[in-house]
Amino acid sequence: MNERILLVEDDPELGKQVTGYLNRAGFETTWATRGDRAAQLELGKFHMIILDLMLPGMSGFEVLQALRRQSDLPVLVLSALNDSVSKVRALQIGADDYLTKPFFPEELVERVRARLRRPLLQRAQQIELGPLRLDLAARGAFFEGKDIELTRVEFDILEALARRPGSALSRRWLVEHLLDPDREGAERTLDVHISRIRKKLGNARWIVTVWGIGYRLDPVGS
């Protein structure tokens, strides 16, 4: 079955073109022209979303925020906004990639393929990424077959990163969702947890620092 892509784009000509590019590349594309209508769709049936930011009804930023409250679905932002503030904000909220308009159709298709190739396997209550395995039910972590002793917070951080391998999670998001955001020095505490996880994995290259944003789990670094 072809992988299903949701395109959220209000420009009728561009939407038609992008749909054509994706369909010819072998994807099954659904096209929505309003942010509010896209947010109401059954997003679980899609494998990825291509999202414009300047949309009627509900901005792309708002769609992304709503999506991240319930799903880890990959999101590629496709926008005419090329300023660093917009790019960083989208990535902090939870976008996996950002491509500015105008763009080359071949690059768009290859970015979609690259994102969908990311080695994430979730089945039952497990996440497997190469030598890393997380047992979510038992809250156990294993690297190269060896049991890793993690604290509750360390496991939560590693699980959050493992659910979206290759994508940066902002320090703010990690602090707000996994630590106490009101505690003084919370971001520094996060850095300490990351350092300890790296040491326990025995391979510091697996968790990459994304300057100005946060951290990502990079299985390629193994």
Summarize this structure as a short list of keywords or feature phrases.
Rossmann fold; 222 residues; alpha/beta; 8 helices; five-stranded antiparallel beta sheet; Arc Repressor Mutant, subunit A
Can you tell me about this structure?
This protein has two domains: 4-117, Response regulator (Rossmann fold, 3-Layer(aba) Sandwich); 121-221, Winged helix-like DNA-binding domain superfamily/Winged helix DNA-binding domain (Arc Repressor Mutant, subunit A, Orthogonal Bundle), CATH 1.10.10. 38% of the residues lie in helices and 23% in strands. The protein contains eight helices and 13 strands. The model is unreliable at 120-124 (pLDDT under 50). The chain has helices at residues 12-24, 35-39, 60-68, 84-93, 105-117, 152-162, 171-178, 186-201, and strands at 4-8, 28-32, 48-51, 75-79, 97-100, 121-123, 126-129, 132-135, 140-143, 146-148, 169-170, 207-210, 214-217. Helix 6 (152-162) packs across helix 8. Helix 4 links the parallel strand 4 and strand 5 (97-100). It has a five-stranded parallel beta sheet with strand order 2-1-3-4-5, with helices on both faces. It has a five-stranded antiparallel beta sheet with strand order 6-7-8-9-10, with helices on one face. A three-stranded antiparallel beta sheet has the order 11-13-12. The longest helix has 16 residues, at 186-201. It is globular and about 55 Å long. It is an alpha/beta fold and 222 residues long.
Q: How are the secondary structure elements laid out?
A:
Elements: E1 4-8, H1 12-24, E2 28-32, H2 35-39, E3 48-51, H3 60-68, E4 75-79, H4 84-93, E5 97-100, H5 105-117, E6 121-123, E7 126-129, E8 132-135, E9 140-143, E10 146-148, H6 152-162, E11 169-170, H7 171-178, H8 186-201, E12 207-210, E13 214-217
Parallel strand pairs: 1-2, 1-3, 3-4, 4-5
Antiparallel strand pairs: 6-7, 7-8, 8-9, 9-10, 11-13, 12-13
Helix pairs in contact: 6-8
